[in-house]
Amino acid sequence: MATKKTVESPEFMYLPLESIIVEEQIRSGIDTESEPFKALMESIKDRGVLEPIIVTPRGDKYLFVCGERRYLAALKLGLPSIPARALDTITQKDEILAYQLTENLQREDLNPMDQAKGILAFVQAKHPDKGYDVDSVMSELVRYTRKPETLSEEVVKTFLTIVEISGKSIMTLYYRLCLPLNLIFIKSAVSDRC
Question: Which of 7, 15, 105, 132 could lock onto 166 through a cystine, CB 3.0 to 4.6 A?
Fold first, then answer.
């Protein structure tokens, strides 16, 4: 009977937590005191981190890409290292955001405000020269549904990428982006009454 030889991949490793650089994430404030987060910590304590985080090399360190809850749980537990998958093909901010957007839009518990933030950040990263804000992205989404031929090919590709990543329609993306504007309006109305 032939035995199988195990081959280790250089892209999977255990990284010391201090070698990971964390920049701004799509998710705004993970509640590390919530029951789901505490359950994740218990699971990691019992079984370890089962799914590696995603990083990309940056000199002698690694830039964090995906797996924020696992990373934060490992930090909070005081673990010396975490399993990671290093992808050296990620070089641009928009590529990092695409990975984060993919992971986060597929999470069932990601709140709609964080989804809106992720969509906007991705569009802004893909088109930094256009100065997009929430209003202008929403206008472009409306143009896409009514007269897509009036948009540049690059903007159309960006929207199609988000639709593919999220599995959501263009109008769902539009309604997600309405949330930050509605929140601003509500806060303004409340402060006017006080």
Answer: 105
Fold that domain 12-91 belongs to in CATH? 3.90.1530
Taking the whole predicted model, whether its pTM rises above 0.70 is answered as: no
Tokens of 77: 């537990």
- Best CA proximity match to 75, nearest among 13, 15, 17: 17
Q: Could you tell me the two tokens for 9?
A: 């991949």
Q: Which of 68, 103, 140, 153 is catalytic?
A: 68
DSSP assignments along 140-155, one per residue? HHHHHHH-GGGS-HHH
Q: Are strands 61-66 and 81-86 parallel, antiparallel or unpaired?
A: unpaired
Q: Which residues contact 142 (CB under 8 A, 6 or more apart)?
A: 174
Per residue in 151-169, pLDDT (tens digit) is 999 999 989 888 887 778 8
Give residues with Cβ within 8 angstroms of 82, minimum separation 6: 14, 15, 17, 20, 49, 52, 53, 70, 71, 74
164 has catalytic annotation: no
**C-alpha to C-alpha distances, 44 to 64, 72, 75, 180, nearest whole angstrom:** 19, 11, 11, 34
